Amino acid sequence: MRIDVLTLFPELFERFATTSIVGRAVSAGLVEIVLTNFRDFTHDPHRSVDDRPFGGGPGMVMMCGPVFESVRHVEKETRSESTRILLTPQGERFDQRMAVELAGRSHLLLICGHYEGFDERIRLGLRPREISVGDYVLSGGEPAAMVLIDALVRLLPGALGDPNSALDESFPGGLLEYPQYTRPREFEGMSVPEILLSGDHAKMEAWRREQALKRTHERRPDLLDL
Ligand code: ADE
Description:
By secondary structure, the protein is of the alpha/beta class. It has helices at residues 12-16, 20-27, 64-78, 96-103, 120-126, 142-153, 165-168, 201-219; strands at residues 2-7, 32-37, 50-51, 61-62, 83-93, 107-112, 117-118, 129-132, 186-187, 190-191.
């Protein structure tokens, strides 16, 4: 899978793309993350990427030119029509179902904005899918792009050490994850539930399932409403 990230701040992704599970997936060749700076597609001495909105109002708006040019540059170079994604709080809400869907694509192109927003013609002309990572406003699309990349890279076959890890976690089975424990058996008066030390796999499975249901019922009953 190839993921192109179009941003004014490629340096934000450098550590991200070389660390932990995403870093390992990149090293293993499961995903290629390519960073492109909108500023490299400007033609004025100030290398402008934003300007004041027509009609007035606060803040600055991302201009069409550098965004269109960088998208076309990437798609020409890769000779592929990518899945274009614009990160914006106005978008469709990102969730695990969408992560699974996007993890099946071969080429994603993520457009990260800054300032007050995008010139509307970026939406009209490039027709990106618009995705939000939640009902709050970030200063830019970069943290949202990292959320997306992280959630889908861990779904790529081979990205996790144990392929069952992705299945066991919160959401894939529609439930929150059951409580987990590791050594030591006792810590500050709190002990590991006896059942997890019993070695009875069927009983442990049943306990975990029951705990996952209980936790989901308590914390996210909306996930159980079908
Ligand atoms: N850019 C700013 N806020 C955002 C959000 N909540 N989701 C995606 N992109 C954003």
